[in-house]
Amino acid sequence: MPKDVAVIGVGQSYFVRGYEGSIRELAFDAYSEAMKDAGIGPEDVDASVVCTAPEYDKQRSPSGLIAEYLGLNPQPTFAIETVCSASTTGFKVAYSMIKSGLHDIVVVLGFQKMSEITSADSQERMGRGADIMWESPFGTMMPAYYAMHARAHFSKYGSTEKDLALIRVKAATYGKLNERAVFRKEVELDQVLNADVIASPLKVFDCCANADGSSCIILANADRAKEICKKPVWVLGIGSATAPMTMTGRDSLAGLDAARQAAKTAYEMAGVSPQDIDVAEVHDCFTIAELMAYENLGFAEPGKGMELIQNGETYLGGKIPVNVDGGLLSKGHPIGATGGSQLRTIVLQLRGEAGDIQVPGAEIGLVHNVGGVGIYGNVVILGR
Amino acid sequence: MGFEKFGVVSFTSQSRASAFVDYLEKGEVRGTKCRSCGRVFFPPRADCSWCMKSDVEWVEIKGEGTLVSYTKVNYGPTGFEKEVPYILALADFNGTKVFGRFNKDVAEDTVKVGMAVKVSPLNLSEGRISYEFLPA
Predict the structure, then answer these.
(1) Domains along chain A?
(2) What is the pLDDT of residues B10-27, one digit of tens each?
(3) Rounded to a whole number, what is the distance in Å from the CA of B112 to chain A's nearest CA?
(4) Cβ distance A145 to A130 under 8 Å?
(5) pLDDT 10s digits, A255-290
């Protein structure tokens, strides 16, 4: 188990519907918190990696602007884009920059201000995160793609709309406790099942909310981490993989191959197995995505994921607590900031600083962050 | 040119596979086949990354396919407000998968994973063209 790169600081803005500020100010919210958490200043930072999805705001080449505003000139910076998994991809790149010996401390900053455009425009942009030549002309969008995965899972394994609804009820249970979540209400099972259908079988509450938000993760090499940080959280494993962007290129829609492959790589690198994970954050952009994650991460056998939620095993106190910060479903999903928010939750868990949602004695945590409809899969395993 | 006519809203104007649209206008849904390795591509590709060659022929997607999955979309993205609701689907034609929409008169409760479907060209308004699934 390598212990040569650590997280030394984490930060996250409140995730909100309409942030009353510009993207630079939004980025500052997470950055200032992470820098205070790490106890360092801009002069200690060797490089920054900015993670965001294009076309939500008008700024081109946002990394240049963000680096200046955060006081990170003349250090190098650049932008990373893998849609919804941008900030875990940025995390992997930052890890590599440190592991190679090029830099000692790197800032990973993710942000998205989705409220600059309408919800329909947002769906159109997300839809174009799939094949614009052969699929977008039919009127595709993210809920529709995930709905087709849900239907395929139902058909292959006998899972149901109720199983998905149970996942939403769990998310809302914890979203209520998270003051930084955009959706803080509890929801009843019937409410989820009887809501408006967006793309069958997915209904309003099966879908995460658009949000504005930012996240910041600061990584350091072992020497600097031990020198600066009382509770470094070590990067034990990182896996990333891809799968065909087109639905026609996939063997099956009942799971996400990119996530499955990324998990395998991360477990091997960390030298751990699914049973060793104490707490996990998975990419629940839709309820079906969490169900598939249970199976793709090996928390359940393929086709058995619904038993975990039916038996409450992914709640606090269960076999494997998942998304006990409310997940994307309740926190909201500001595209470029999401992976960093997941990483922050796990870092706080491993430091024992997660408050009401603390998993007692958590030693190893996992983050599963997916870009687009399973185009990009990133899995990160962290440990004390 | 020619590819901008494909679908309700097209985001691509040119492709070396735009003969696809010409075949649709002749009433045929065709994919491509690599003349070197024999792989069949749908959606059609102009190039084969297995052979590193760009020598393909056009082959018709015909007969019955099996429905892999589907969804009825009630809220469409920008540009599709007047189209909703519609049923998106993925079907497998003997190992070649096709993504598209069902004919608008097909009711959701008659659609089932595993059902037999066929695919045929569909003329849209203003000279645009696409294809659609129908129960076989």
Answers:
(1) 5-117+211-234 (3.40.47.10), 140-207+236-383 (3.40.47.10)
(2) 899 999 999 999 999 999
(3) 9
(4) yes
(5) 999 999 999 999 999 999 999 999 999 999 999 999
